[in-house]
Write a structure and sequence with these properties.
Length: 124
């Protein structure tokens, strides 16, 4: 995983975990990598992973079964969508709208680009 400078590493790791859940690589009630395993895999300090896991626990996306490990919460997909949607609408959408306005991009053009993106990336 390559980290960007514009966002805290623990938040980028949270996005990584959330994406795995949304893509169903990790399913509800399935065990996820331990703090140490994830730290080794992503080459970060275990404290960074713990901070990520703490955040995701507060959002009810993962849960800790003491002595066993961390697991994907039963309704994690819904929680991830709510968490990411809130962030997207508040932080990213205004920037996107500004660029659409400044570059005079039509909604028809956006729709075509979006449909092509889905076809190329998700075989829908």
């Amino acid at each position: 995983m390559e980290f960007r400078d514009n966002k805290a590493i623990y938040l980028q790791i949270a996005d990584y975990v959330c994406e795995h859940i949304l893509l169903e690589k990790w399913k509800a009630e399935e065990k996820i990598p331990s703090v140490r395993e994830m730290a080794v895999e992503l080459e970060v300090n275990p404290n960074t992973i713990m901070r990520t896991y703490d955040l995701l626990q507060t959002k009810n996306i993962i849960s800790n079964k003491r002595g066993i490990g961390f697991f994907v919460a039963e309704k994690a997909v819904d929680q991830v969508k709510d968490f990411r949607k809130t962030h997207f609408i508040a932080d990213e959408l205004p920037v996107l709208f500004r660029n659409i306005y400044l570059l005079n991009i039509s909604f028809d053009e956006l729709q075509r680009k979006y449909e092509n993106f889905i076809k190329e990336n998700f075989n829908a």
